[in-house]
Amino acid sequence: MKRLFKFIAQHSIAAKLTAMAVAGALFMLFVALTVLLIARSELASERAERAHAIVDAVWSMADSFKRAADTGAMSEEEAKTRFFTAAGAVWFEGHTNYVFIYDTETGLCVMNTGNPGLIGKDVRELKDAGGMRFASMMLDIARRGGHDQVRVPARRRQNAARQGGVCPRLRPLAPDDLVGRIHDRS
């Protein structure tokens, strides 16, 4: 400690003030970065909670339509048609996120408002930009009855407003054995 005091004492007042200003700026930068990282984490948590709420709402819709079909209020085919119409209309976060549904037994895409070209196709071999078979992973989680998330990198486009990954919410839609998933198009 004496060496530090001796080292500081050898320098002029201007050098000492400059050192203090630099140290203060570095500490402020450290605090600002810490606050930004915490805020980013909180925003991601809020976004995941909103996605979970949307999937839970769609799950409740599926359950409601299934009960209506079971009681005879409508046919099973009409219940499915009305459910897919209602669930397909669910978009959120500035029309960038939507729900889509996979059949866990066959791996077929049953509903996908954001990418209608996938409907009726086997999605188990779909890969993200890093080569991960994300749809297969999601189907495995849903088959186990889990309520889990899979981190999927967002597709990169030159004009995309946001870059980053998504954490879809997986939830089995019993008894039809369908999986609800939130997907971010950016």
Your description of this structure?
The chain has a single domain (43-184), classed as PAS domain (Beta-Lactamase, 2-Layer Sandwich). The radius of gyration is 25 Å and the shape is elongated. It has 186 residues and is an alpha+beta fold. Helix content is 48%, strand content 15%. It is built from four helices and seven strands; from the N terminus they run αααβββαββββ. The longest helix has 59 residues, at 13-71. The model is unreliable at 156-167 and 174-186 (pLDDT under 50). The strands form two sheets. Strands 1, 2, 3, 6 and 7 form a five-stranded antiparallel sheet that branches. The protein has a two-stranded antiparallel sheet with strand order 4-5.
Q: What composes the largest sheet? A: 5 strands, antiparallel
Q: Rg to the nearest angstrom?
A: 25 Å
Number of separate strands: 7
Just give the CATH class: Alpha Beta
Percent helix, as a range, is: 40-55%
**N- and C-termini, Cα separation:** 55 Å
Quote the CATH topology. Answer: Beta-Lactamase
Q: What are the secondary-structure elements, in order, as H or E?
A: HHHEEEHEEEE
Number of helices: 4
Assign the CATH architecture. Answer: 2-Layer Sandwich
- Total domains, how many? 1
In CATH, the homologous superfamily goes by the name PAS domain
Mean of residue pLDDT values: 78
Oligomer: single chain
Sequence stretches where pLDDT stays below 50 over 5 or more residues = 156-167, 174-186
Query: In terms of structural class, how would the helical and strand content be classed?
Result: alpha+beta
- Silhouette: elongated
